[in-house]
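Changelog note: in this version the structure field was regenerated for every chain. One regenerated record is shown below for reference.
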Amino acid sequence: MSDSKTQSELSRVKAETGREHAEDSREEADLERGTAEQQREVAEGLRKEAEELRVAAEDARHAAEEARHAAEEARHATVAAVAATAEALRTNLAQMQFIEDARNTLRQLKPTEPDDIH
């Protein structure tokens, strides 16, 4: 019976060792699972940040495109303003030339001496 008791004791020790090994493996797996979860959370945070940066870059691209359109419209407005200014100057010059011609005509028609008036 002592053999059977020894065999039983050896089986119990072996089972206890197996249980301890399984417990160690479980704890190790829990730690790895925790590390994997932390890495997943970090990766998710980085993914969200990358998405926010992508959206910001897209918004910046749209803003740049709108600014380009606004600059083009401003250029057209400037060209129109310059053309309008040139037309106004041309009109003013024509008026001044007309006035100058009228003065010259009046000078030619004006009698030089009071006796010349009849």
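Spot check on this record: The chain is about 90% helix and 0% strand. The mean pLDDT is 92.
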